[in-house]
Design a protein that fits this description.
With about 130 residues, this protein is of the alpha+beta class. The protein contains three helices and seven strands; from the N terminus they run βββαββαβαβ. The structure holds iron/sulfur cluster. Iron/sulfur cluster binds near residues 8, 13, 15, 42 and 43. One of its GO terms (cellular component) is membrane.
Length: about 130
């Protein structure tokens, strides 16, 4: 079994744990003792939130919805180009306030800062919200 030290990705607290890997499969986590944030403990999400890693239903590439409602697998380049074109189309037809941006508690402060900058400077909207506000 390999143990890989990492930071939990479930919220912005920054707890540290070892991911326990056997035969290229994640089989569990072990909290890092004496870590200044987690102090050898984890919440239930930190303990249990790893089953998605090897789940067969996990998406491993972007999907673009087609006009008939089906989804077509695409590359990241195709997906990001599609998103950029769609943003431009919506803004030209309805204005910047037709777009809103919704962030996540799973992002770091730095990622949330970048998203706010992207929304206000590039998309020109102040419609920004965050799931941790609930
Ligand atoms: S273990 Fe829990 S509190 Fe710690 S970072 Fe993960 S989700 Fe947040």
């Amino acid at each position: 079994m390999k143990r890989i030290l990492t930071t939990c990705g479930y919220c912005g607290c920054g707890c540290n744990f070892y991911v326990n890997v056997k035969d290229d499969q994640v089989i569990g986590v072990s909290p890092k003792p004496n870590h200044p944030v987690s102090k050898g403990q984890l919440c239930v999400k930190g303990w249990q939130g790893h089953s998605f890693v090897n789940h067969p239903d996990r998406l491993t590439s972007p999907l673009i919805k087609q006009s008939d409602g089906t989804f077509k697998e695409s590359t990241w380049e195709e997906a990001l180009s599609y998103i950029a074109k769609s943003f431009k189309k919506i803004i030209s037809k309805k204005g910047s306030d037709a777009i809103s941006v919704f962030s996540s508690a799973r992002c770091t402060n730095e990622e949330n800062y970048l998203l706010v900058k992207f929304a206000r400077s590039i998309l020109k909207t102040s419609n920004i919200d965050h799931c941790a506000r609930l």
